[in-house]
């Protein structure tokens, strides 16, 4: 909506003549139609365009901001990296959204946060979504930038926690730090896993190779804990549900590989020959690892809407595809 109070300099002309000057890119027939439909009013009332406007009159135009800018002949705003990410990163599903948080189901192949300055990631998509939906403005970004709060690997799919407000960022940060938010994954591993188990260890990272290994001892801040249970055993693999009790980079992949059950499709930590068979038959090109469930603890105001709630992300089709027939 646009409102303009007529000044002495503009007074004395017909309303339709004034509108032509205000909206030079709009045709006469369109302007008269908008007057008839009361999408353009004079002093809050219907007008036909023949009225002479006087100082103090109020002209109101009920157009969307983009439409108004186009008819005013204003140049289109410069495209940003947020626009580009919102348009190019497809397949992202919003599972939940309020004024403080957003839960996104990220497909495999999309970065959670950019690794290089030229990357497009879920972080840029998030801001693009909020700008596109008018939830925030470019001016709002100067005070606070909405952001992703937990990272999934590029080729890991599923639920990503995003903060829309500072309060939301602080709340999610506290839950992740205190490990009171429960996160569950589904994945396929090699071999038969018959019993649930809690496994522990210490993560050691090789920065040059961007790879981790599991050790029996290490620094306290490298301690990891992973809990899993089998859901279904197939010919050469098992579908697991894993609860991530600590959150370290590559934790699930390295931990399960370390006990002899590497993830299907994981070429960094897994069995290349086994993976190649599934790649050839089912086009599995990366680890089948999906963050499918999060459970929120009881939360105070202003987070009553998500207090104690469970959110699910749909299991990707590739999981069903590989489960149709176990590899011979």
Tell me about this structure:
The protein is of the alpha+beta class and 328 residues long. It has helices at 15-22, 28-36, 65-72, 81-88, 122-132, 166-178, 251-258, 272-282, 317-323; strands at 2-5, 40-42, 58-61, 93-97, 101-106, 147-148, 157-163, 182-190, 197-206, 211-215, 223-233, 237-244, 289-295, 310-312. The strands form 2 sheets. Strands 4, 5, 6, 7, 8, 9, 10, 11, 12, 13 and 14 form an 11-stranded mixed β-sheet that branches. A 3-stranded antiparallel β-sheet has the order 1-3-2. Helix 4 (81-88) packs across helix 5 (122-132). The longest helix is centred in the middle third of the chain and has 13 residues, at 166-178.
Helicity range of the residues? 25-40%
- Strands, count: 14
* N- to C-terminal distance: 65 Å
Uncertain stretches: none
Task: Give the count of helical stretches.
Answer: 9
User: Pairing-aware structural class of the strands and helices?
Assistant: alpha+beta
What is the 3D form? elongated
Main sheet attributes: strand count, strand direction, barrel closure: 11 strands, mixed
Strand content: 25-35%
Radius of gyration: 28 Å
Average pLDDT score: 93
Please trace the helix and strand order, writing H or E for each element: EHHEEHHEEHEEHEEEEEHHEEH
